[in-house]
Amino acid sequence: MKDFDDATALIADMGHAARAAAAELAFAPSDAKRRALEMAADVLWRDRAAVLAANEKDMAYGRDKNLSPAMLDRLLLTEARIEGICDGLRAVAAQDDPVGKVIDAWERPNGLKIERVRTPLGVVGVIYESRPNVTADAGALCLKSGNAVILRGGSESFHSSRAIHAALQEGLRAAGLPEDAVQMVPTRDRAAVGAMLGAVGLIDVIVPRGGKGLVGRVQTEARVPVFAHLEGICHVYVDRDADPAKARAVVLNAKTRRTGICGAAECLLIHKDIAATLGQEIVDDLMAAGVEVRAEGLIGSRPATPEDWGHEFLDMIIAARVVDDIDAAIAHIRRHGSSHTEAILTEAPEAARHFFERLDSAILMWNASTQFADGAEFGMGAEIGIATGKMHARGPVGAEQLTSFKYLVTGDGTVRP
């Protein structure tokens, strides 16, 4: 791994090392994995000053690149955010080990005893942008699920990610686990991404986490399986039976809590019967909070255009429109959504059931902010991403979703006639 100019050779070296580590992790004791993650959390907190100094280098780099305020917020680490990363590491450490878990078991009439048990995927490649916390989340979840991981962070988070990775490495050493279990690509060269996408036989699955450009490239070029994480074009539909206080609070939170995350609401749909009253109040709330509302059928900051539907703003901007009824809202979401997260705000259970039955996004919510679309909030400790495809993993990808299964068959000299 000395010649960073040859991306293919670099990734090949890392891949071979990862496969060797994965072979050991497949049967590593649960206690060792737990100790590694707990130690990583302790080291990260101990070295938080150095992590913050590394992050300042990345922030300066981001400002020089004229990143938007929302993108800079994704990149920013504070002491409170580092504490949150440490909490996430400890939460994953405390979870039950999914490896070896019996999913199902049965006995055949011929006496064969069959078990279906969870087993690691092998080597996971994670390609991500901006958010340095993904380094810890992905490293922790892959380790917990017995997978080796190759991390390729964004150029903006280069220094922060390396600082977090150093804590993970120290945790591995302390627990007697192979350091190659969690590796980080040591170069900003984009050629490394292409090399990872073509690493057939070395990387078992690629998880992209970033914007449309990154995910699109991965899906187009990858020769290994991909857990797709598309844009977070999240919709909130305010039904005519919505509770006004709940609706105003939820919509404001869904858009403004953090605008640069994939769970931020990007489109607001309002039933026509409440458009002039509650609907306009919600739009006024958003504008008062500094959100640019691109509206159709409401008085917003400016009129909406066709390009505003199905757009991931990741900023203090939201598209809003009046719809005739719940079915019109569903039709809009089917046409413009990304199958990530949608919410309905209503006090009518039948409307919520209708919404849940007729939409097939990875996450559907009733009277809750789309900002809860997060593995930690789902009790997974952390997530490696929100998978929007329909194969294998879907929704927040935690440790259990990073496993496959195998069959264990036991006989007693049993032969087939």
Question: Briefly, what is this?
Answer:
The chain is built from 13 helices and 16 strands. Strands 10-9-11-8-7-12-13 form a 7-stranded parallel sheet, sandwiched between helices.
Map the helices and strands.
Elements: H1 7-25, H2 30-46, H3 48-64, H4 69-75, H5 79-94, E1 102-107, E2 113-120, E3 123-128, H6 133-144, E4 148-152, H7 158-174, E5 182-184, H8 191-197, E6 205-209, H9 212-221, E7 234-238, H10 244-256, E8 265-271, H11 275-288, E9 292-296, E10 302-303, E11 317-323, H12 326-336, E12 341-345, H13 349-358, E13 363-366, E14 386-387, E15 395-396, E16 403-410
Parallel strand pairs: 3-4, 3-6, 4-5, 7-8, 7-12, 8-11, 9-10, 9-11, 12-13
Antiparallel strand pairs: 1-2, 2-16, 14-15
Short key terms for the protein model shown above:
417 residues, 7-stranded parallel beta sheet, globular, 13 helices, Aldehyde Dehydrogenase, Chain A, domain 1, 41% helix, alpha/beta, 16 strands, Aldehyde Dehydrogenase, Chain A, domain 2, 4-stranded parallel beta sheet
Largest sheet: 7 strands, parallel
Note the run of SSEs as H and E.
HHHHHEEEHEHEHEHEHEHEEEHEHEEEE
SS element count, helices: 13
How would you sum up the global shape?
globular
Provide the number of structural domains.
2
Instruction: Give the low-pLDDT segments.
Output: none
Secondary structure: number of strands: 16
Question: What's the helical proportion of residues?
Answer: 40-55%
Global Rg: 23 Å
Average per-residue pLDDT, rounded, comes to: 93
In the CATH scheme, the class of the largest domain would be Alpha Beta
Q: Identify the CATH homologous superfamily of the largest domain.
A: Aldehyde Dehydrogenase, Chain A, domain 1
CATH architecture grouping of the largest domain: 3-Layer(aba) Sandwich
CATH topology of the largest domain: Aldehyde Dehydrogenase, Chain A, domain 1
What structural class is derived from the secondary structure elements?
Answer: alpha/beta
Strand portion, in percent?
Answer: 15-25%
Strand order of the largest sheet: 10-9-11-8-7-12-13
Measure the end-to-end span: 54 Å
- Multimeric state: single chain
